[in-house]
């Protein structure tokens, strides 16, 4: 395509997630040496940390084809059977949001993963209705989901390799931004790259998006070079604050402070107050705020921390006693 891909194509090109990378390199090499399909892989982690990229890299490193589908796109068992029956030997099937597949499809996955076969119901009338066993080639399922606990244990137990993706360190995002800038033919200095890295919520997808927008500011408001000053200007315009929090992050933190006197507040209550889905809040937004120490979980719900009061310029003495 015209758009140059910022996605790394190999494990060597992939920056960060060192533990997963190191382990995958061994498992991939071992499977190739034995001329077997790689064991099934389950990836956990918030959006934008590179689960899809890893699935693409696994297929690329194996030298096989990648097939992709998302959990919610599988409405009936036939949707799943359709992708399973076109797999070639050793191919990778990536199911994003695997926790959202219907139970009936999940049961088909069990035999597909374990025995490389599926049972399909055929026949229209009661007399002709029967089940046919369809063999599948050995393949590798890569499943991705946002959080442990969203996936049933029978399904989880059928994955031989489990990886938890973590938020990236600013130094890792710095390297990713330098690499992306080079692919985009954009000049960025170290201070500019570090400023974007620090304010990217630990997330490469965010870092690459902010890089592209800051590049626009550099081109139109500057001389094309991305400096710290240009990064500051761009990020301010995008409502990304000094800690990298976006509008949604600040809405959540402000709601805990203003409407629940700092908490504790249950996730369900907080979600409905904000008009957001509970899962969006719990698995996509909150993990970063927890990791950065803006929110703490208590048995009675979420509370805003001292750091949050300071960052938002609020008075902590107005907080409810916890
Ligand atoms: N682009 C997006 N994520 C990346 C990663 N983890 N390594 C290198 N480039 C990336």
UniProtKB/TrEMBL annotation:
Describe the reaction catalysed, as an equation.
ATP + H2O = ADP + phosphate + H(+)
Query: What is one GO biological process annotated to this record?
Result: DNA repair
Lineage: superkingdom: Bacteria
GO MF entries: ATP binding; ATP hydrolysis activity; four-way junction DNA binding; four-way junction helicase activity
GO cellular component assignments: cytoplasm; Holliday junction resolvase complex
- Annotated residues that bind DNA are located at 278, 297, 302
Question: Which part of the chain is the AAA+ ATPase domain?
Answer: 37-171
CDD domains, per the entry: AAA
Tell me where it mainly resides. cytoplasm
Which residues does ATP bind? 6-7, 48, 51-53, 114-116, 158, 168, 205
Report the InterPro entries cross-referenced here.
Answer: AAA+_ATPase, AAA_lid_4, DNA_helicase_Holl-junc_RuvB, P-loop_NTPase, RuvB-like_N, RuvB_wg_C, WH-like_DNA-bd_sf, WH_DNA-bd_sf
- UniProt entry keywords in alphabetical sequence: ATP-binding, Cytoplasm, DNA damage, DNA recombination, DNA repair, DNA-binding, Helicase, Hydrolase, Nucleotide-binding
Q: What is the E.C. number? A: 3.6.4.-
Q: Which Pfam families match?
A: AAA_lid_4, RuvB_N, WHD_RuvB
Question: Region (Head domain (RuvB-H)) spans which residues?
Answer: 242-322
| Residues that coordinate or bind Mg(2+) | 52
Q: Where in the cell is it found?
A: Cytoplasm
Where are the annotated segments for Small ATPAse domain (RuvB-S)?
169-239
Name the protein family.
Belongs to the RuvB family.
Summarize subunit and interaction data from the UniProt record for this chain.
Homohexamer. Forms an RuvA(8)-RuvB(12)-Holliday junction (HJ) complex. HJ DNA is sandwiched between 2 RuvA tetramers; dsDNA enters through RuvA and exits via RuvB. An RuvB hexamer assembles on each DNA strand where it exits the tetramer. Each RuvB hexamer is contacted by two RuvA subunits (via domain III) on 2 adjacent RuvB subunits; this complex drives branch migration. In the full resolvosome a probable DNA-RuvA(4)-RuvB(12)-RuvC(2) complex forms which resolves the HJ.
Annotated function: The RuvA-RuvB-RuvC complex processes Holliday junction (HJ) DNA during genetic recombination and DNA repair, while the RuvA-RuvB complex plays an important role in the rescue of blocked DNA replication forks via replication fork reversal (RFR). RuvA specifically binds to HJ cruciform DNA, conferring on it an open structure. The RuvB hexamer acts as an ATP-dependent pump, pulling dsDNA into and through the RuvAB complex. RuvB forms 2 homohexamers on either side of HJ DNA bound by 1 or 2 RuvA tetramers; 4 subunits per hexamer contact DNA at a time.
Domain comment, in the record's words?
Answer: Has 3 domains, the large (RuvB-L) and small ATPase (RuvB-S) domains and the C-terminal head (RuvB-H) domain. The head domain binds DNA, while the ATPase domains jointly bind ATP, ADP or are empty depending on the state of the subunit in the translocation cycle. During a single DNA translocation step the structure of each domain remains the same, but their relative positions change.
Q: What is this protein called?
A: Holliday junction branch migration complex subunit RuvB
This protein's species is Caldibacillus debilis GB1
């Amino acid at each position: 395509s015209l758009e140059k891909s910022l996605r790394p194509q190999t494990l060597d090109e992939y920056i960060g997630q060192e533990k997963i990378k190191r382990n995958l390199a061994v498992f991939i090499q071992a499977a190739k040496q034995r001329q077997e399909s790689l064991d099934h892989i389950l990836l956990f982690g918030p959006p934008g940390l590179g689960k899809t990229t890893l699935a693409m890299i696994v297929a690329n490193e194996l030298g096989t084809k990648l097939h992709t589908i998302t959990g919610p796109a599988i409405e009936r068992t036939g949707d799943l059977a359709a992708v399973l029956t076109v797999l070639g030997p050793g191919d990778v099937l990536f199911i994003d949001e695997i926790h959202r597949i219907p139970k009936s499809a999940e049961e088909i996955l069990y035999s597909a993963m374990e025995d490389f076969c599926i049972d399909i119901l055929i026949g229209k009338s009661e007399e002709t209705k029967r089940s046919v066993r369809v063999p599948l080639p050995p393949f590798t399922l890569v499943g991705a989901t946002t959080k442990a606990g969203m996936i049933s244990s029978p399904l989880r137990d059928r994955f031989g390799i489990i990886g938890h993706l973590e938020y990236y360190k600013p130094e890792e995002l710095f390297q990713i931004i330098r690499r992306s800038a080079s692919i985009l033919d954009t000049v960025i200095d170290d201070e500019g790259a570090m400023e974007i890295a620090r304010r990217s919520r630990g997330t490469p997808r965010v870092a690459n998006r902010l890089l592209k927008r800051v590049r626009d500011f550099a081109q139109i408001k500057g001389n094309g070079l991305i400096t710290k000053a240009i990064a500051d200007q761009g990020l301010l315009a995008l409502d990304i604050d000094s800690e990298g929090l976006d509008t949604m992050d600040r809405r959540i933190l402000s709601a805990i402070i203003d409407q629940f006197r700092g908490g504790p507040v249950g996730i369900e209550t907080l979600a409905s107050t904000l008009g957001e889905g509970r899962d969006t809040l719990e698995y996509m937004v909150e993990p970063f705020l927890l990791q950065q120490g803006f929110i703490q979980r208590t048995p009675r719900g979420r509370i805003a921390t001292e750091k949050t009061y300071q960052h938002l310029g609020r008075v902590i003495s107005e907080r409810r006693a916890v």
